[in-house]
C-alpha cells in the first residue's frame, strides 16, 4: 500500500547533495518502469528505486518479489543495520538472486563493535540497561549476565525489581507478571558472581508531568501516591564510581524520563560518565533507541566510541543472536 509520506524522493534529493550529482528516481521498485529506467542509465549514473514497503511481499519475504527486486543487480550492499534483524525481501530474500552480497561500511562497524563487545570485551565489562519495561529487556539482561562483570539497572524497570525485593513503590510503573522473572535475574547474577547494581534512591514525582512536585527519596521510602521518574543523586554517584575503571561499557535505555528536565539528571549523568570512560581509552557503545537520543540531547555523541543505529537489531546482537540480514551476506 502506497504511503505518500514514505516516498523516496526526499532521500534521492539528499543523496544527490551528498554525491554532488543527479540521482534519478522511479515510481516503483519492480516492474517495467524500473527496467526502462535502468536501461537508460549510463556508467556512473544513480537510480533510486521506490520504497519496497509499499508491497506487502516485502515484509513477508516472498521469493518471487525478492527475485524481481534483484533482477537488475549483480552486487547487493546491505548498510541498513537497523533492519538487519528482520528477514525481509530487501534484506535477506534478495541475496539469493545476486552474485555478490556484502556489508556496507556502517553495517561492518556495527558488527565489529557489537559483536566485539559480546564475544571478546576488554574487561571489566559493564552493561547499563534502562528503559520503562523489564519485559522488553529480559533476553538481553539474561545474555549479558553470562558475559558482564557488572550490570546496572535504571529506568522504569527498576520498580519491578524492587517489588521482587518486597519493597513498596507507590504509583511507579510495575509489570506484575514479570516480578518472578526479575527475582530470577537477580539470583542468576548472584550465582554467576556478576555485580547487579540497582539504584538505592530515586527521584519521585507527585504526577507524570514535567512540572510536577519532585523529591529525592530512598527506595525504602517511596510515598504511596508518588511515582519514580529518575534514579537518585546518591545512586548516580555510586553508578559513576562503579563505572570508573571499566574498559567496555554497553548502554541501552535511559535512567529516567529524560524528556522532562527535572528527571534527566540520572540519564545525562551516566552519559557524562561514559564520555569520561571513552576519554580514558575505554570502549563505550550506545545500543540504539532512547539512549542515542539521550546522548545527543546531552551533546556527548562525539565522545562515545560507537552509537548504534539499530534498536531491535542492537539488542538482538547483544543477545548473541545471528541477524538474518547479516547471515545472508558473503563471508568476508
Automatic annotation (TrEMBL):
InterPro entries: Phosphoglycerate_kinase, Phosphoglycerate_kinase_N, Phosphoglycerate_kinase_sf. Its cofactor is Mg(2+). One of its GO terms (biological process) is gluconeogenesis. It comes from Spumella elongata. Its EC number is 2.7.2.3. Pfam families: PGK. The keyword Kinase applies. It is an enzyme of class 2 (transferase). Keywords: ATP-binding, Kinase, Magnesium, Nucleotide-binding, Transferase. GO terms for cellular component: cytosol. PANTHER family: PHOSPHOGLYCERATE KINASE (PTHR11406), PHOSPHOGLYCERATE KINASE 1, CHLOROPLASTIC-RELATED (PTHR11406:SF23). One of its GO terms (molecular function) is phosphoglycerate kinase activity. Monomer. Belongs to the phosphoglycerate kinase family. ATP binds at residues 137, 259, 288-291. It catalyses: (2R)-3-phosphoglycerate + ATP = (2R)-3-phospho-glyceroyl phosphate + ADP. This is Phosphoglycerate kinase. Pathway: Carbohydrate degradation; glycolysis; pyruvate from D-glyceraldehyde 3-phosphate: step 2/5. The keyword Glycosyltransferase does not apply.
Amino acid at each position: 500500500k502506497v504511503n505518500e509520506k514514505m516516498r523516496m524522493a526526499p532521500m534521492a534529493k539528499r543523496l544527490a547533495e551528498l554525491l554532488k550529482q543527479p540521482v534519478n528516481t522511479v515510481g516503483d521498485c519492480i516492474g517495467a518502469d524500473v527496467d526502462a529506467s535502468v536501461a537508460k542509465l549510463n556508467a556512473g549514473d544513480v537510480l533510486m528505486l521506490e520504497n519496497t514497503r509499499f508491497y506487502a511481499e516485502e515484509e513477508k519475504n516472498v521469493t518471487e518479489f525478492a527475485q524481481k527486486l534483484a533482477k537488475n543487480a549483480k552486487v547487493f550492499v546491505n548498510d541498513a543495520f537497523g533492519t538487519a534483524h528482520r528477514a525481509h525481501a530487501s534484506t535477506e530474500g534478495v541475496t539469493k538472486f545476486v552474485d555478490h552480497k556484502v556489508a556496507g561500511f556502517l553495517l561492518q562497524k556495527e558488527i565489529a563493535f557489537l559483536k566485539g563487545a559480546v564475544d571478546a570485551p576488554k574487561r571489566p565489562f559493564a552493561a547499563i540497561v534502562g528503559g520503562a519495561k523489564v519485559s522488553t529487556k529480559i533476553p538481553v539482561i539474561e545474555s549479558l549476565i553470562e558475559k558482564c562483570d557488572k550490570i546496572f539497572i535504571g529506568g522504569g524497570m527498576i520498580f519491578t525489581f524492587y517489588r521482587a525485593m518486597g519493597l513498596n513503590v507507590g504509583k511507579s510503573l510495575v509489570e506484575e507478571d514479570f516480578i518472578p522473572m526479575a527475582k530470577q535475574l537477580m539470583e542468576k547474577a548472584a550465582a554467576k558472581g556478576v555485580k547487579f547494581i540497582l539504584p538505592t534512591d530515586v527521584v519521585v514525582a507527585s504526577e507524570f508531568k514535567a512540572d510536577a512536585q519532585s523529591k529525592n527519596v530512598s527506595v525504602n521510602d517511596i510515598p504511596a501516591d508518588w511515582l519514580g521518574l529518575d534514579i537518585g543523586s546518591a545512586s548516580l554517584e555510586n553508578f559513576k564510581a562503579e563505572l570508573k575503571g571499566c574498559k567496555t561499557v554497553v548502554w541501552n535505555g535511559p535512567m529516567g524520563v529524560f524528556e522532562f528536565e527535572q528527571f534527566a539528571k540520572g540519564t545525562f549523568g551516566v552519559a557524562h560518565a561514559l564520555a569520561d570512560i571513552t576519554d580514558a581509552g575505554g570502549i563505550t557503545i550506545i545500543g540504539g533507541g532512547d539512549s542515542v537520543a539521550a546522548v545527543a540531547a546531552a551533546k556527548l555523541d562525539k565522545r562515545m566510541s560507537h552509537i548504534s543505529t539499530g534498536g531491535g537489531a542492537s539488542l538482538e546482537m547483544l543477545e548473541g543472536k545471528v541477524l538474518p540480514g547479516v547471515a545472508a551476506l558473503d563471508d568476508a
